[in-house]
Amino acid sequence: MVVVDHDRKSLGSVERALAGRPGLVLLGAFTSVEQAIRGVDWGSVDVLLTEMDLPGSSAVTLLTTVLHANRSMKAAAHTHNRNPEAMFTALGAGATGYLIKNDRPKLLTDAVRALADGDSPISPAMASHLIRPFVPAKRPVTPDELSARERQVLDMIRVGLIRKEVAARLNLSVHTIHAHMKNIQRKLQATGGPKP
Q: What structural domains and CATH numbers belong to the chain?
Protein backbone atom coordinates (compact mmCIF):
# COMPACT_ATOMS: atom_id res chain seq x y z
CA MET A 1 0.00 0.00 0.00
CA VAL A 2 1.12 3.57 -0.75
CA VAL A 3 -0.18 6.81 0.78
CA VAL A 4 0.24 10.28 -0.74
CA ASP A 5 -0.65 13.28 1.39
CA HIS A 6 0.98 16.70 1.78
CA ASP A 7 -0.02 16.74 5.47
CA ARG A 8 2.61 14.87 7.49
CA LYS A 9 0.20 14.56 10.41
CA SER A 10 -2.27 12.70 8.18
CA LEU A 11 0.53 10.46 6.91
CA GLY A 12 1.44 9.69 10.51
CA SER A 13 -2.18 8.84 11.31
CA VAL A 14 -2.36 6.39 8.43
CA GLU A 15 0.97 4.83 9.41
CA ARG A 16 -0.25 4.36 13.00
CA ALA A 17 -3.60 2.95 11.84
CA LEU A 18 -1.84 0.34 9.67
CA ALA A 19 0.92 -0.55 12.12
CA GLY A 20 0.72 -4.18 13.17
CA ARG A 21 -2.39 -4.93 11.12
CA PRO A 22 -2.00 -8.31 9.44
CA GLY A 23 -1.90 -8.10 5.66
CA LEU A 24 -1.53 -4.31 5.55
CA VAL A 25 1.99 -3.28 4.58
CA LEU A 26 2.87 0.33 3.91
CA LEU A 27 5.33 0.42 0.99
CA GLY A 28 5.64 4.19 0.92
CA ALA A 29 4.30 7.47 2.28
CA PHE A 30 4.88 10.56 0.17
CA THR A 31 4.06 14.26 0.40
CA SER A 32 3.89 14.96 -3.33
CA VAL A 33 2.83 13.33 -6.58
CA GLU A 34 6.32 13.71 -8.01
CA GLN A 35 7.92 11.90 -5.06
CA ALA A 36 5.36 9.12 -5.22
CA ILE A 37 5.65 8.51 -8.96
CA ARG A 38 9.45 8.28 -8.73
CA GLY A 39 9.66 6.54 -5.35
CA VAL A 40 7.74 3.31 -5.85
CA ASP A 41 7.70 0.26 -8.09
CA TRP A 42 4.02 0.69 -8.91
CA GLY A 43 3.78 -2.81 -10.34
CA SER A 44 4.01 -4.18 -6.78
CA VAL A 45 1.43 -1.87 -5.19
CA ASP A 46 -2.06 -3.21 -4.50
CA VAL A 47 -3.67 -0.14 -2.84
CA LEU A 48 -3.16 3.61 -3.15
CA LEU A 49 -4.65 6.23 -0.84
CA THR A 50 -4.28 9.83 -1.96
CA GLU A 51 -5.31 13.22 -0.69
CA MET A 52 -7.25 15.08 -3.40
CA ASP A 53 -5.81 18.52 -2.58
CA LEU A 54 -2.10 18.08 -3.32
CA PRO A 55 0.49 20.74 -4.12
CA GLY A 56 2.22 20.57 -7.50
CA SER A 57 0.86 17.86 -9.78
CA SER A 58 -2.70 16.91 -9.02
CA ALA A 59 -4.14 13.75 -7.52
CA VAL A 60 -5.76 13.15 -10.92
CA THR A 61 -2.30 13.03 -12.51
CA LEU A 62 -1.19 10.57 -9.84
CA LEU A 63 -4.26 8.35 -10.28
CA THR A 64 -4.15 8.23 -14.06
CA THR A 65 -0.38 7.66 -14.15
CA VAL A 66 -0.11 4.87 -11.58
CA LEU A 67 -3.37 3.12 -12.50
CA HIS A 68 -2.08 2.98 -16.08
CA ALA A 69 1.14 1.40 -14.78
CA ASN A 70 -0.73 -1.17 -12.66
CA ARG A 71 -4.27 -1.92 -13.80
CA SER A 72 -4.94 -4.34 -10.94
CA MET A 73 -4.18 -1.75 -8.26
CA LYS A 74 -7.09 -0.26 -6.30
CA ALA A 75 -7.11 3.44 -5.43
CA ALA A 76 -9.16 5.68 -3.18
CA ALA A 77 -9.13 9.31 -2.19
CA HIS A 78 -8.43 9.79 1.53
CA THR A 79 -9.25 13.43 2.03
CA HIS A 80 -10.96 16.21 3.97
CA ASN A 81 -12.51 17.41 0.69
CA ARG A 82 -16.28 16.89 0.91
CA ASN A 83 -16.99 18.60 -2.39
CA PRO A 84 -18.97 16.19 -4.61
CA GLU A 85 -17.04 17.51 -7.63
CA ALA A 86 -13.80 16.27 -6.06
CA MET A 87 -15.35 12.85 -5.53
CA PHE A 88 -16.60 12.63 -9.12
CA THR A 89 -13.18 13.79 -10.35
CA ALA A 90 -11.44 11.06 -8.33
CA LEU A 91 -13.84 8.38 -9.53
CA GLY A 92 -13.50 9.61 -13.10
CA ALA A 93 -9.71 9.28 -12.83
CA GLY A 94 -10.00 5.63 -11.79
CA ALA A 95 -10.39 5.68 -8.01
CA THR A 96 -12.90 3.15 -6.71
CA GLY A 97 -13.27 4.63 -3.24
CA TYR A 98 -13.67 8.02 -1.58
CA LEU A 99 -12.89 8.21 2.12
CA ILE A 100 -13.32 11.23 4.35
CA LYS A 101 -10.52 11.51 6.90
CA ASN A 102 -11.50 10.88 10.48
CA ASP A 103 -9.83 9.88 13.71
CA ARG A 104 -11.09 6.29 13.89
CA PRO A 105 -8.30 3.96 12.69
CA LYS A 106 -10.56 0.90 12.43
CA LEU A 107 -12.75 2.61 9.84
CA LEU A 108 -9.68 3.30 7.72
CA THR A 109 -8.27 -0.20 7.98
CA ASP A 110 -11.67 -1.74 7.21
CA ALA A 111 -11.97 0.53 4.16
CA VAL A 112 -8.47 -0.38 2.95
CA ARG A 113 -9.25 -4.09 3.28
CA ALA A 114 -12.54 -3.58 1.42
CA LEU A 115 -10.73 -1.67 -1.32
CA ALA A 116 -8.11 -4.44 -1.65
CA ASP A 117 -10.93 -6.99 -1.91
CA GLY A 118 -12.42 -5.13 -4.86
CA ASP A 119 -15.16 -3.25 -3.00
CA SER A 120 -15.79 0.47 -3.42
CA PRO A 121 -15.74 2.07 0.02
CA ILE A 122 -17.42 5.48 0.00
CA SER A 123 -17.78 7.46 3.21
CA PRO A 124 -21.45 7.81 4.20
CA ALA A 125 -21.10 11.60 4.09
CA MET A 126 -20.42 11.32 0.34
CA ALA A 127 -22.58 8.36 -0.68
CA SER A 128 -25.74 10.47 -0.87
CA HIS A 129 -24.17 12.47 -3.72
CA LEU A 130 -23.93 9.27 -5.76
CA ILE A 131 -27.54 8.23 -5.28
CA ARG A 132 -29.15 11.68 -5.45
CA PRO A 133 -29.52 11.66 -9.27
CA PHE A 134 -31.56 8.47 -9.03
CA VAL A 135 -33.97 9.70 -6.35
CA PRO A 136 -37.14 11.18 -7.82
CA ALA A 137 -37.95 14.75 -6.85
CA LYS A 138 -40.50 14.89 -4.06
CA ARG A 139 -42.60 17.56 -2.52
CA PRO A 140 -40.62 19.37 0.18
CA VAL A 141 -41.97 19.36 3.70
CA THR A 142 -43.70 22.59 4.67
CA PRO A 143 -42.97 24.32 7.98
CA ASP A 144 -46.51 23.80 9.29
CA GLU A 145 -46.12 20.02 9.03
CA LEU A 146 -43.58 20.09 11.89
CA SER A 147 -44.22 21.47 15.36
CA ALA A 148 -42.17 24.45 16.56
CA ARG A 149 -40.12 22.13 18.79
CA GLU A 150 -39.56 19.65 15.94
CA ARG A 151 -38.32 22.47 13.69
CA GLN A 152 -35.99 23.59 16.48
CA VAL A 153 -34.59 20.07 16.94
CA LEU A 154 -34.22 19.56 13.18
CA ASP A 155 -32.36 22.86 12.76
CA MET A 156 -29.86 21.86 15.47
CA ILE A 157 -29.30 18.40 13.98
CA ARG A 158 -28.73 19.93 10.53
CA VAL A 159 -25.92 22.16 11.82
CA GLY A 160 -24.13 19.09 13.15
CA LEU A 161 -25.18 18.82 16.80
CA ILE A 162 -25.64 15.31 18.13
CA ARG A 163 -28.78 14.37 20.06
CA LYS A 164 -27.05 14.70 23.43
CA GLU A 165 -26.00 18.28 22.58
CA VAL A 166 -29.51 19.14 21.35
CA ALA A 167 -30.97 17.75 24.58
CA ALA A 168 -28.59 19.86 26.68
CA ARG A 169 -29.34 23.06 24.73
CA LEU A 170 -33.11 22.57 24.97
CA ASN A 171 -32.99 21.29 28.55
CA LEU A 172 -34.70 18.06 27.51
CA SER A 173 -33.81 14.39 27.92
CA VAL A 174 -32.03 12.51 25.15
CA HIS A 175 -35.06 10.17 25.10
CA THR A 176 -37.33 13.14 24.32
CA ILE A 177 -35.02 14.29 21.51
CA HIS A 178 -35.04 10.74 20.14
CA ALA A 179 -38.86 10.78 20.16
CA HIS A 180 -38.86 14.15 18.34
CA MET A 181 -36.46 12.76 15.73
CA LYS A 182 -38.68 9.72 15.14
CA ASN A 183 -41.68 12.03 14.65
CA ILE A 184 -39.70 14.28 12.31
CA GLN A 185 -38.49 11.34 10.27
CA ARG A 186 -42.00 9.88 10.04
CA LYS A 187 -43.43 13.21 8.87
CA LEU A 188 -40.64 13.89 6.38
CA GLN A 189 -40.90 10.42 4.88
CA ALA A 190 -44.67 10.75 4.61
CA THR A 191 -44.34 14.05 2.73
CA GLY A 192 -41.25 13.09 0.74
CA GLY A 193 -39.19 15.80 2.40
CA PRO A 194 -35.46 15.71 3.08
CA LYS A 195 -34.13 13.30 5.67
CA PRO A 196 -33.17 14.84 9.03
A: 2-133 (3.40.50.2300), 143-191 (1.10.10.10)
